[in-house]
Amino acid sequence: MYFKVRINGSDFGVFGHPHVLNMHLAVQWVCHRHEDSEGSELFASAVCMEDGKKYLYDWVQHPLSPSDIVEIAPTDETTVPEPRVRYEINSRSPTE
Predict the structure, then answer these.
(1) pLDDT at position 31 over 80
(2) C-alpha 93, offset from chain centre
(3) How far is the C-alpha of 14 from the C-alpha of 85, rounded, in Å?
(4) Which of 38, 42, 45, 69 can bridge 31 by disulfide, Cβ–Cβ 3.0-4.6 Å?
């Protein structure tokens, strides 16, 4: 599952993975309390399976201006940037 993101008509990036369990591509309003500022940002992250293990991939948190136009669409492209963060998800039983 892969998606292409364009901002103001320009390619921003392709995000995805061949074994996606859950993908999050969104524009959200964010309040930065430590900076006393707020605004829209683009987020791209996913939970993926690799070699029988779950990983959280976090690619981007990109600020947007109020006039930015964001397009998110499925794509056949599969060249994806390295995530800025990659965490292994260790499952625990409900009794732990």
Answers:
(1) no
(2) 27
(3) 16
(4) 38
